[in-house]
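Bumping my old thread because nobody answered last time. Still need a sequence for this structure:
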């Protein structure tokens, strides 16, 4: 017998109601079972700078896991490599410098926020040269190895500026921290902008000495944790757990310096004694309980940021993009 149109419509409506009921049941089961989208790890990039190894300590001791956050630490060869990874969105945040953070905000247009101050360099960043180079003035026309990233170039430019010189008066050779030790010892470089562990190795060699250090520009070189603004807004619990784990690593170092130094030294292939020396010579660590003093509105870090922006804009490294200095986010 022929099927009437209204009967077809009724069957279709019945099938639709059944599908909706099934979907509702599945949603209810999922809610009751605690179903949720998998949360991706918080990806943090860093290089061999000793203070960045506190993140390795937090990972090794299980502090991140205990704080309920999955952190994926990704090591890069230099500050510039880390910044490029962040700008291409391969990582969510980075251990870096204030200078690199400002350049990322300016050139990549990302709302990068500083959420932790790790240390101030007071001599740890150095320009190493052979003994025949007695001062920065003797580097005129010489080959200077430098990571072509913001911090190293800033260090070199400032050191030359203080002697009335400019970058055009030296020969820049692009290198990285891992390669420059061999390049210096083989005579392919006359000087290099270095930091531990590379600077530690070079300065242990009697052929070399420091002709400039960050001690001559106090307050201008600070290392920080910087996180993307979108991540801070959309995944605040992850960021909070990461920072708690990092704070615990600093506390563990205070209470157990030998064990903490052993773990962190192994990450950058130096002895525990060398590692501890790198943290106590030419560095001012900023402890968890001091963070508010630096990151709060009107805190100690803001004048540093303002000054760096002025210097870098004058040098043509930064544009006059509005809001560059608004980069601090106390957590």
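Sorry it took so long. Here it is:
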């Amino acid at each position: 017998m022929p099927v009437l149109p209204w009967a077809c419509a009724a069957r279709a409506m019945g099938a639709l109601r059944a599908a909706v009921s099934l979907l509702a049941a599945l949603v209810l089961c999922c809610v009751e079972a605690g179903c949720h989208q998998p949360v991706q790890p918080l990806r943090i990039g860093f290089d061999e700078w000793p203070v960045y190894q506190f993140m390795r300590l937090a990972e090794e001791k299980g502090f991140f896991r205990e704080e309920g956050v999955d952190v994926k630490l990704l090591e890069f060869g230099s500050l510039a490599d880390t910044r490029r990874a962040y700008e291409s969105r391969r990582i969510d945040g980075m251990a870096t410098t204030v200078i690199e953070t400002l350049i990322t905000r300016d050139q990549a247009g990302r709302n990068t926020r500083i959420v932790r101050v790790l240390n101030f360099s007071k001599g740890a960043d150095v320009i190493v040269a052979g003994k025949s180079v007695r001062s920065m003035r003797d580097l005129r026309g010489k080959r200077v190895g430098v990571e072509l990233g913001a911090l190293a170039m800033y260090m070199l430019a400032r050191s030359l500026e203080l002697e009335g010189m400019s970058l055009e008066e030296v020969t820049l050779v692009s290198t990285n921290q891992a390669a420059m030790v061999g390049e210096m010892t083989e005579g392919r470089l006359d000087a290099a902008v270095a930091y531990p562990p590379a600077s530690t190795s070079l300065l242990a060699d009697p052929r070399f000495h420091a002709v400039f250090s960050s001690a001559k520009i106090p307050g201008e070189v600070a290392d920080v944790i910087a996180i993307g603004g979108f991540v801070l807004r959309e995944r605040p619990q992850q960021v909070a757990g990461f920072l708690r784990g990092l704070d615990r690593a600093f506390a563990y170092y205070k209470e157990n310096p030998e064990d903490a130094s052993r773990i962190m030294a192994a990450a950058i292939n130096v002895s525990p004694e060398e590692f501890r020396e790198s943290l106590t010579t030419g560095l001012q660590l900023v402890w968890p309980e001091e963070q508010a003093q630096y990151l709060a509105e009107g805190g100690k870090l803001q004048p540093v940021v303002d000054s760096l922006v002025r210097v870098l804009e004058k040098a043509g490294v930064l544009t006059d993009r509005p809001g560059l200095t608004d980069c601090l986010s106390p957590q």
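The radius of gyration is 26 Å. Let me know if any region looks off to you.
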